Amino acid sequence: MKIAVASGKGGTGKTTVSVNLYNTIGKYFDENVRLVDCDVEEPNDAIFFHNPILNSKKEVHQLIPEIDVEVCTFCKKCVEWCEFNAITIIKNLEFAEINPDLCHSCGACSVACEFGAITEHPQPLGVISHFQTEYGKGLIEGRLEIGSAMQTMLIKEVKKEVAGENSSIIIFDAPPGTSCPVVETVSDADYIILVTEPTPFGLHDLKITVELLKDLQKPFGVIVNKSGLGSNDIYNYLEVNNIELLGNIPFSIEYAANYASGNILNNIPVKFETTYREIAEKLIIKSSL
Ligand code: SF4
Ligand code: SF4
């Protein structure tokens, strides 16, 4: 079962939930669980594990085309074929250029060009690392090259690392928000956990994410983090819309201090551990259905 953990905004505790659920399942239920950090712009799952062992690390590249203006006839066929408006051709000026920030490395322009004016060159996209952790099968992390805007492309590459893997549960920690990288992360998940907080901002962003998942026709449930703060509006919304509440994680200053020091897996309060075990049980039941 592939489970994506998402949230409409940053700071709701999505990473905390991903890491704790992974650890809880690996420790108490099933060693055959995998964690995948798809928040490639700012991956930070690894810092919550104590001395995770780096097993492997590889650079991932994307092919960026380049136009040789000495060969180019400025016919603009490549412009017509490019769906991402990445190519600029100005015949009068004999100008031909590809914007690497817009290019999705689809290769269409190279196929379109009948004059052999386009060649493709590898450019760094990011790094994929595999870490061994105390419990579970380990963490896979994607880290985007600084300056690259191709989060979605790297997330696709990260997901290939677990394609065909026989893990019983794979947890994808999605980027925050509702943009393309989130859609890519949740697109082939069997179930989505939405993490929110009981504040007006939390409710606002939750509603947007719920609409996205309804459009994608994905089953989902909600974890309310920092419960006890704010109002009951979020619970009323879940009830009225018949959305499953998977669990409440209470607000705790002590735990917030643990988080700030990257120490969320040690000295976890009993009430938190109980909550995570209950949520893990629900997920394991869903995975066996
Ligand atoms: S298709 Fe080839 S020849 Fe035509 S404009 Fe593009 S690069 Fe130049
Ligand atoms: S590889 Fe694809 S996205 Fe990039 S410039 Fe060529 S056609 Fe456009």
Describe this structure in words.
The protein is an alpha/beta fold and 289 residues long. The protein has two domains: 2-49 and 133-288, Rossmann fold (3-Layer(aba) Sandwich); 62-124, Alpha-Beta Plaits (2-Layer Sandwich). Helices cover 33% and strands 28% of the residues. The protein has nine helices and eleven strands. It has helices at 14-29, 77-81, 108-112, 151-160, 180-186, 200-216, 233-240, 253-260, 270-288; strands at 2-6, 33-37, 53-67, 87-90, 95-98, 118-132, 138-144, 169-173, 191-196, 220-227, 244-250. It has a nine-stranded mixed sheet, with helices on both faces. The longest helix has 19 residues, at 270-288. The chain is elongated, with a radius of gyration of 22 Å. The mean pLDDT is 91. The site of one iron/sulfur cluster (SF4) has 15 residues, from helix 2.
Distinctive features:
289 residues, alpha/beta, Rossmann fold, two-stranded antiparallel ribbon, 9 helices, 28% strand, elongated, binds iron/sulfur cluster
Write the layout of secondary structure elements.
Blueprint: E1 2-6, H1 14-29, E2 33-37, E3 53-67, H2 77-81, E4 87-90, E5 95-98, H3 108-112, E6 118-132, E7 138-144, H4 151-160, E8 169-173, H5 180-186, E9 191-196, H6 200-216, E10 220-227, H7 233-240, E11 244-250, H8 253-260, H9 270-288
Parallel strand pairs: 1-8, 1-9, 2-7, 2-8, 9-10, 10-11
Antiparallel strand pairs: 3-6, 4-5, 6-7
Helix pairs in contact: 1-9, 4-5
